[in-house]
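Fold this sequence, please.
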Amino acid sequence: MDQTYWAAKEGSDLASELNDRRTTFLRYLDSQGYIARWRNAMSHYYGQTDKNSSYVSSGGIQGELALVADAEYPSLLKQIHTMVTQQRITWQTKAVNTDTKSLTQTILARGILDYYLRKSGLDTYISKATETSLVVDWSWVTAEWDTTRGNPVAGQIAYVREGDIKYQSKLPSEVAYDILAPDIAEIPWAIVDEIRSKYELANQFPEFADEILAVQADKGYEAQYSLDNLSTSTLTVLKSDMIRVATFHHKPTNALPTGRYALFIPGGSVLSATPSPYDELPIVRISPAELIGRSLGFTQTSHLLGLQECINGIVSALVTNVSTFGVTSIWTGKDPDLDARQLANGMTVFESTNEPKPINFAGFPPQMLNFLEFIIKRSEAISGISSVVRGQNPGDLSGAAMALLTSQSLQFQSGLQRSFAILNERLGQLTLSHLQKFPNSQRLTAIAGSANQWMMKTWAKKDISDVVRVFVDLGNPLANTVSGRMTLGETLIKNHMISPQEYIQIIETGTLEPSLESQERQMLTLRDENEKLQSGIPVKVILIENHPQHIKSHLTVIASPETKEDDNLVKATLDHIQSHLNEWKNTPPEMLAALGIPPFPSPMMPQPGMPPGPGAPQPQGMPHPSNAPAQVQNAESPIAQAGEKVGMPSMPKVAGTNQKFQPPGGPQAMPQGVR
């Protein structure tokens, strides 16, 4: 029996294994009703069921029914999608060390990731995947290194490019994997479908050109497993050079230490098979929730599909009633004086024996309208989207009450928000890993600089080699609304924590990036100076530095027991601190005030008549108080000398006698000097 691991096989054996696993996965989705439910959800989302939201169609035996679809279901899903994706993504990077070089690399890495997020379209794929997962349970985003992308390599005769990252969003039916894995993060392999031009593919793999060019659109697959309800007849009419190919990714494991990468034609040959160039699977999934016991996703919005069909039925009945009986009928008895043609001209004066009366058949039963309102409210409750979030005020609600309802809607979507954060974080990590591994030349990238001004930055993979981790900060949802930004800005400016310019920045963007950037640069400068002091490199002090902040930071250089034993280091650090003290002391007060630096502390002067504190220097020519004669000490203060002449009070006399009062205990109990 062949005990070779199936993913390690070669040639036709590998092709057979890959095709079998891909087909088995698709059949599982079909047999469990996923494909049918996803098609139904897609049809309702785009308003293309038997009732269309774009126009009113006819139905019934004789076309007597007016059919139309309402857009309640897509409206709720769009609201959820907006709530989740409107949060500002902020990359946070972590280096292996905390030295200045590593911290500088983290700043560069954040700028590069921000470029790929906003300028390379990654945010678009993330948004699309999030939207797809709300409709069809889960979605994927791939991040692969594509050697055919990027700028042309200078000096190459052939058409060679430097390579770049290719992102794609994928439907759940386009990525096959082992669904019995205990967790989606534990899946060892994935097969990703992709639509590519067969002529481009034949040029890339000339040895398989005949087989590739002979491939036609897989009409059977598209009719059975596609989610857009394309019929076989429609596919026959369409003429396209696009064919479906599949990429196999297997991450390095104990069973397959080098991993595996393979490109194959479904039902055909393996075009390429190599060890995996990636350390992990270059694909990330997003799902609003997880199916218990399986590595399958689930969306709560699937419970809205039945209610949407009810809404469509009620709205169609109402439209049918209006379209059939919307024109008012006139009832009258037989009247020889009334000609019906007289009514056709609109406002007309005519005479008749009997009064004609209008009959209205187009009235709406209140029970039907109440039922429609009930279903809409149930849809809002199931989706967690209140009418307040949708821009409606159901009553005289206060601002605090409306804010509470909005926050509850955000909390209801916490599962999707968590998956959204993980998707961003893992894609950021994949992007960073690819850029640390694949580029062989320097790259020129537009990176956000001061005050969000873009600047061109040249970098190489060694410039971000020390960055090891990417985190995502989704920001405060409060900052996504104008009222929330105003509240945040007013609080900060009231407490003198920001400037008026930064207040405007908060109102416009909800962030404080310029001020944070300044603080970050100051922090890096302090770290760099401390490292130079530790290395024995002289550090220059300039007048406009924040001297108190520098002094506190530099004290950490000699704060450990080991550094205290290094006399040279201690002397160099204290000399540098003394230079800060000198510059601080000589800085004009108006400049200190402009820079927000406290004034240099004045020395404590002894009060008149009071000796200096212990160890304090004595005025020149004056003896220490402890060595001075008593009369000199007493003569230091005229007030003290005058006090010596004041006598103590006498004890009062006992009433009716000439004897002075004696306190209990005798004369010795009286204070000294009292007569």
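The CA atoms of residues 211 and 484 lie 60 Å apart. Residues 514-599 form one domain.
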